What does this fold into?
Amino acid sequence: MTLGAQQTQVLRLVLLDGLRPAILGLFLGLVASAAVVRLVKSMLYETEPLDPVVFFAVSLILILVAATACIIPAWRASRLDPVSSLRAD
It folds into this structure.
């Protein structure tokens, strides 16, 4: 913000920096779980191995938790006074 960024730009930057690893981990986890579920298919009882509802629900919950965890630091960073942050460093 000291260099001219707007509050919304700082908020977006911090949110994207926090959500990027969560989205990458979600993608890799979904791919790995789709591969592993075929190996444990015989141990599953009354459920489909590749149930899209379960995969979607888990993905949605993970993204919501990650976004909630990122929103507080992003909000604080966007509301920070540039002059006080320069004095602190």
Notes: Residues 19 and 66 are 6 Å apart (CA to CA).
